[in-house]
Design goal:
By secondary structure, the protein is mainly alpha-helical. The protein has three helices and no strands.
């Protein structure tokens, strides 16, 4: 399945969601409000800046940090 973001008029939202739920090949995961959408976009933009400036770590390094944090909190 692909994940899509669809914008729809506020007054048509409930109708549209009900219509989608009638389709067996569509799964409605959640709906975004403007505040959540704005936060999502800002988080993506922040992560893209981090990538561009090299402020990233490897998956292995992250696993080690989480492991150290878990051991420290016990």
């Amino acid at each position: 399945m692909e994940t899509l973001i669809v914008k729809i008029q506020t007054d048509k939202k409930d109708f549209f969601l009900a219509l989608l739920q009638e389709l067996s090949f569509v799964e409605v995961l959640e709906s975004f409000d403007q505040e959540l959408e704005t936060a999502y976009i800002e988080a993506i933009e922040e992560s893209e800046k981090d990538i561009e400036t090299g402020q990233t770590i490897t998956h292995q390094a992250l696993k080690e940090e989480v492991k150290q944090w878990r051991n420290h909190t016990k």
